C-alpha cells in the first residue's frame, strides 16, 4: 500500500497528530424534536487551517428521531504518502432518512470511509497532478504518456500498411492501435465518489442480515480536494453556491418526474418488475374502463412530449409514475428515485420490490473553487428538501446575502445564524391557518437540515 488514509479532527492540536474519525455533530432525540420556539443552534467546530462550516437542523414538534435527518459532521481525511506532501480532504454530508433512521445513521457514519478508501486507490496519481492518469496501472511508464495523441497512436490503416511501430516492423515500440481517451484527475475523484456510494449501498444491504437497519435515505455530500468542490447528490436534497449575489446550482434533484424516462425504460425492458399490476406508460390521469377503445394522451420512455394512443385493457393498470410535483410517486410508494437503502421496500400489500427502480448512483458536479477569489459573503448552501420545497434558489440567495450583510464581519457565528434564519423562513410563523411564510404561503411541514459553508477560506489554503 503506497500510503495511508487517516480521518482526523481539527482542534488545538495539530491535525496530523490525530488518528480517528469523529462525527462532530451528534444530535439527541430531544434536540431533534424541539419546536420552532426552542430551536437549538449547533455550531460545527471550525477547522484551524481549513474551510469552516455552520449548520442547523430542525424537525417539527412531535416528530420522532427515526423520521428526521441524520447529518454527518465536518472532518478531514489526510492521505500520507512516503516522500510526498499530504493530501487533505474536507467533507460535508446530509442524509435525509425515510421509513426509519437506520440507513441514514449508517451512511452518516460510514460513507466518508468508503470515499477515503477509493481515493486511496488513486492517491499516487492524485499526488502527481501534472501527469495524466495511466490507462493501466500495471504498465511500466512509457514515453507515450508524455507525447501528443497524434504522435503516440497508430491508426488501424497505418498498422495494416506496416508503418513504423506496426507489428512486424523494425524497432517496434509498445503497440498502440487506437487513440486513448484522455482522462482527467477530476474524473478519478468523481469515480471514487460514485463507487463509494455504490459500496455504501451494498454494505447496508449486507449488514441488514445482522443489524436492524431500517428504511432508506437520500444523500448529499460535498468533498473539497485540491482546489475543487465535488458535489455528489443522490436524492432530492440540493446545494447551491452564492457568489457575489449570483446563484450557481451545483446539484439536481432526482424524483419520479425528473427520472421518468429512465424508470419507464427499465419497466419496458423488464416488465416482470411491475408484477402485472402496473403499466410503464404515463397518462394525464387514471384511465377508466369506459375509455377502453378511445384515444387518450400518453407518454412512453422515448418521448418528452405527448401523443394519443388507443386505450386497451393493459392501460387500466396503475401507472408506474403517478402524481405531480411533491406528490409524484414510483409504484404508488416513494417520491425519490435515488438514495441509499430501501432494499426491502415493497408496494403495499404486494410482493413487488421497489429497489430495482431506485439508483444509489450520485450525480457528481465539480466547482473549481480555486479559480475564483471568494469574499466573506460567498457561501455554499446545502439543504434537505424541507428547505427547497418552500424557498426558491433566489429566495435563499437573497435571504443569506441580506442576513450576512447585516452581521458584523468579525462575528464567527454569523454563518450559523444565517442557517438558522433560513430554517425559520422556511418554517414560518404559526397563524390561524397553520404555519405561514412570506406572501402567506404554507410553511414547510418537513424537517430541515442546512449547511452554510463560507468559501473564502479556500483561498487561504496552502
From TrEMBL:
Membrane-spanning intervals of the chain: none
GO MF, one example: [pyruvate dehydrogenase (acetyl-transferring)]-phosphatase activity
Domain PPM-type phosphatase: 64-455
UniProt cross-references to PANTHER family, sorted A to Z: PROTEIN PHOSPHATASE 1H, PROTEIN PHOSPHATASE 2C
Organism, as annotated: Oryzias sinensis (Chinese medaka)
Database matches in SMART domains: PP2Cc
Protein name: PPM-type phosphatase domain-containing protein
Gene3D superfamilies associated with the record: PPM-type phosphatase domain (3.60.40.10)
Cellular component, GO annotation: mitochondrion
Database matches in InterPro entries: PP2C, PPM-type-like_dom_sf, PPM-type_phosphatase-like_dom
